[in-house]
Amino acid sequence: MRHEKATRLLELARLLASSAEGLTLDEMARALGVGRRTAERMRDAVREAFPQMEEVDDPPTRRFRIPAGLDGIFQAPTADEFAALRAAAENFRTLGATTRAAALTSLEQKVLSAVRAGVRRKLAPDMEALLEAEIMSFQAGPRPFEDQTVLGPVREAIMSLRRLRFKYEGGSTPGREREVTPFGLLFGRANYLVGAEGPSTEPRTWRLDRIRDIKVSPTPGARPAGFTLQAFVTRSFGIYQDAVQEVRLRILPHGAEEALVWRFHPTQTLERQADGSVLATFQAGGMRELAWHLFTWGDKVEILAPERLKTMMAEELAVAVKAHGPLGSG
Questions:
Q1: 0.70 surpassed by pTM
Q2: Cα–chain center distance at 153
Q3: For residues 183, 287, 139 and 326, what is the CA-based torsion angle, rounded to 10 degrees?
Q4: Distance CA 305, CA 316 (A)
Q5: By the 8 A CB rule, do 216 and 149 touch?
Q6: Residues 6+ positions from 77 with CB-CB distance below 8 Å
């Protein structure tokens, strides 16, 4: 128990050292999953070990921080942390996300180079054992496009608040040059630039693998005030953006246990019904992608709303039957 308490205090010290503006007591309590009084006692214990802790007035409350970080002895990485970092890099590499894989590999090398040789020798066998015992399962799907000649200018434009110019091999006029204000990058089954074209502020998605001859424009361009990439993604099920609708799904009793631990959408609510089924409700666009997903649930799900989703599901079923023939025709 003493060891566990020491570990929790060190965790709090790291949080206070990594925050430039500092943390309030309530923020400490939330981060550590404890009550406010416990957070207050932990703060006092950390202050005894790190007397350089500062208090910053932030009416109506106060913030606490440890300036200049912690000594290296308190920051030594563990084998678990290194193994997780390398596994993430390998997972990106397997998916075809070579740019992000290279960034994580570079980070691992930088951290390892800062670790003393004796510590590295002790970490090596544990890291290898963990990496051999843990592997990400294969997921079928397209290999995402990641090319630094595209990602580099996009990130430069986002940081310098400028627009991008590129030719886009998609849309109704393939090959036409576009001028786009970049809002962010969306990584998934395919990778997209999120941005607005010309004077518009309405966000659209642009597939990175269809972008050609990209360069940063001298024209200023910043995303609209209040726009967040997370809110944009939450509007849809998947990538495609269309009208947001209330979705209501009934997962039948033989799929209920799976549904209760399933994440359909960030806005979802799940309610177990008296008959053993589960009612899932959420607000989203992207009905076609949702219909594709619901195929994987087979006979476990019933669409209650909206009607458009029911229609789209029936249309996708008709397309599948047309492609493969009715049951028993072969």
A1: no
A2: 22
A3: -150
A4: 17
A5: no
A6: 111, 115, 123
Q: Return d(Cα 157, Cα 161) in angstroms, integer.
A: 6
Determine contact, residues 35/23, Cβ cutoff 8 Å: no
Quick one: tokens of 59? 């009416």
Two tokens at 258?
């799976």
Cα separation, 306 vs 287, in Å, equals: 9
Q: What is the DSSP letter of 302?
A: E
Adjacent-strand bridge partners of 162 = 220
Residues 115, 78: Cα–Cα separation, whole Å: 11
Per-residue pLDDT of the chain (330 residues; tens, 9 = 90+): 455 688 888 889 989 988 888 999 999 999 999 999 999 999 999 988 887 888 988 888 899 998 877 765 556 677 888 888 888 888 888 777 788 888 899 998 888 887 777 777 777 787 777 767 766 655 555 666 778 889 899 999 999 999 999 999 988 888 999 999 999 998 877 788 999 999 999 999 999 999 999 999 999 998 898 888 888 888 777 666 678 889 999 999 999 999 999 988 888 999 999 999 999 999 988 888 899 899 999 999 999 999 999 998 999 888 888 888 776 655
- Measure the CA–CA gap between 65 and 14, rounded to whole angstroms: 10
CA distances from 79 to 90, 100, 140, 189 (A): 16, 21, 30, 30
Q: CA quadruple 109, 112, 117, 122: dihedral positive or negative? A: negative
Residue found under tokens 């290898």: 128
